[in-house]
Amino acid sequence: MYRALATTVLVVHFAFLAYVVLGGFVAWRWPRAFWPHLVAAAWGLAVVTIPLTCPLTYVEHWARRRAGEAGVGRGFIDQYVEGVLYPERHTHLLQVIVGLVVFGSYAGVYVKYRNRRDTKRGTEEMSEPPATV
């Protein structure tokens, strides 16, 4: 049971990481998703810049120990991403790329919001009767 919990937490962790990187694009379709993603992105930035232990990492390590496995001493990114999905020497480059992807998604949200607002404003101006002198 604990092994299944550890695997489930691992899947949730990968999903959260994908959301941190790509979730800003969800706000292109659903603007209300912007704020939850901003919180997730801020958490992701904090975990990378400040030595914090993610609660998901804590739960995974706890479940692995309870399952009789050796506790993993490294964080999620150190264990499953860095050196596995890309060489460790490219960590800083990948962090910059992730930051640019998130920033780009937010820029897209802003442009879509601004265009929607301008379109709405233009429609309202067209529907007003012309001013009489």
UniProtKB/TrEMBL annotation:
InterPro entries: DUF2784. Pfam families: DUF2784. Keywords: Membrane, Transmembrane, Transmembrane helix. The chain crosses the membrane at residues 6-28, 40-59, 92-111. This is DUF2784 domain-containing protein.
